Amino acid sequence: MIYIHFIVNPISGSGKHNFAKTELEKFFPKSIYKIEVDYSNYKKHAIVLTQKAITKKPHYVVACGGDGTINEVASCLINTEIKLGIIPVGSGNGLASNLSISRSLEKATEIIRKGKTKFIDVGKINEHYFFSNVGVGIDALIIKKYERYNKRTLISYVRATIASSIDFKPIQATLSFNGKIIGTNAFMLFISNSNQMGYGMTLTPNADLNDGFLDLVIVPKLSFLDKLTFGVCVLTNTIEKFKKAKHILIEKINIEMPKKIFLDTQIDGELHNLKTNKIEIAIIKNGLEVLIH
Fold first, then answer.
1. DSSP secondary structure code for residue 47 in this structure
2. Phi-psi domain of 35 (left: phi exceeds 0; alpha: psi -120 through 50; beta: other)
3. How wide is the angle at C-alpha 75 spanned by C-alphas 143 and 219, nearest 5°?
4. Is the pLDDT of residue 201 over 90?
5. Bridge partners, 36 (sequence order)
6. Distance (Å, rounded) from C-alpha 129 to C-alpha 123?
7. Mean pLDDT of the chain
8. How far is the CA of 278 from the CAs of 162, 232, 257, 260, 264, in angstroms?
9. 16: pLDDT confidence band, cut at 50, 70 and 90?
10. β pairing state of 33-39 and 2-8
11. DSSP secondary structure letters along 114-138
12. Residues 106-129: what's their mean pLDDT?
């Protein structure tokens, strides 16, 4: 008997996927599977639910939501033998896209039934884990504005991006990585484990979940015209044409922003306010076992 515990975020994406246990049982016959379903009701609730589920020793815990829900569930599974399953019903679905996990409930549940897995790398920023990406700079402000909209859609994301490009002031930062120290006046500092950001967009098309590296993107202070060019390159997935963006492979980086006290950062598409102006980001190689296509 395979025991699967589902953690469902009922308001992810369109908010029309409040999977009932009876609905999931159509895909997981009682003769083979034992399933339980919990629903998250607020930010970080999925962490509480996953920690409780772990005590029951399921074979798989399946996150049904977007990258934020996946982050909360997956963060609890590191250093356990429990495998992560994903049913992507969020708005961006960056990690699921990278793993070729379909938004179709039928196809996503088929992946879970097959039980094929692989280990992926995991990122860590201070005490937080990330699986897709983190950002300190304009992308944190974009998420801050994006979270204020009632609907999480691509149009909302574009609106938040335009507003942020007008409001954002570059941040003075000192970066220590790969044996060197550099200073920058940063428009964006983006560190990615995945080749997908969400909505089919990417800043790191060559990133690999299994290569043992994180992909660092440094974008310095930009003119108005450069901001427009950068935005078009992001929306059209032609970031390699934007020569002012530096791409560097790293295993670890320390970032200090001396003119800040606290730092807004986005972690897998969710806003976090870190009560420090210093952050350490590192990779955990093969840190999580995931059910895949």
1. H
2. beta
3. 40
4. no
5. 5
6. 6
7. 93
8. 28, 31, 7, 9, 12
9. low
10. parallel
11. HT-EEEEEEEEETTEEESSEEEEEH
12. 97
Do 100 and 160 contact (CB within 8 A), yes or no? no
Q: Is the pLDDT of residue 18 over 70?
A: no
- 8 A C-beta contact, residue 122 and residue 84: no
For helices 67-77 and 45-54, the axis angle rounded to 10 degrees is 30
* In the predicted structure, residue 200 carries a pLDDT above the cut 90: no
Collapse the DSSP code of 40 into the 3-class scheme (helix H, G, I; strand E, B; otherwise coil) and give the result.
coil
Q: Is the pLDDT of residue 150 over 80?
A: no
Tokens of residue 45, six digits: 């609730």
Amino acid occupying residue 62 = V
Cα gap 67→146, rounded to integer Å: 15
DSSP 150-215: SS--HHHHHHHHHHHHHH---EEEEEEETTEEEEEEEEEEEEESSS--BTTB-S-TT--TTSS-EE
**Residue 75 is encoded by which pair of tokens?**
């963060």
Give the model confidence (pLDDT) of 31-67 as tens digits. 999 999 999 999 999 999 999 999 999 999 999 999 9
pLDDT-derived band at 213 (thresholds 50, 70, 90) equals very high
Q: What is the number of other CB atoms lying within 10 angstroms of the CB of residue 121?
A: 22
6 in Cβ contact with 19 (< 8 Å): yes
SS3 at position 99: coil
- Label the pairing between strands 171-177 and 252-256: antiparallel
End-to-end CA distance of the chain: 22
Residue from 62, 57, 75, 89 nearest 6 by CA = 62
Angle, CA of 124, 80 and 49, to the nearest 5°? 85
Rg (CA), the chain: 19
